[in-house]
Amino acid sequence: PNILPVEAQLRGTLRTFSPALKERLVQRMKDIVAGVAMTYRCQYDYLTTVDCNSLITDDEMSELAIESMKKIDAELDIRRDGHCMFSEDFAEFSQRVPCAHFMLGAGPEDESKRYSLHDPRIEFNEDALSLGVAIYTQVAIDFLYKK
Q: What is the pTM of this model?
């Protein structure tokens, strides 16, 4: 613990709700890194290895999706918990067309066996997949007929 390392690495992910905020935060991080390097008279490299876009949720498309879900099952527990900080490929679509992002509850029936998404013990209830397919299909049909 007493030895100063020759180099250090700081890694992380950045998730935002808008491209403008993402650009501002990336620039701010670069400014801070440059300032710290100048303060301690050292060199730095700032490297972005993976650049995931912001997941944009369109309100109108979200309403359409909710109405479509109700057509599939009026008793579904639909919650509008706001935006989620996901970094995933779906965000690429949301940059180009109006998108609704929703999560399908697929946890095991036994609540004692439910874990967070990144826990290695997680198990999914694959019976939920048919409901997800039905919802996606209904949303697509409703969207196309709306046009």
A: 0.71
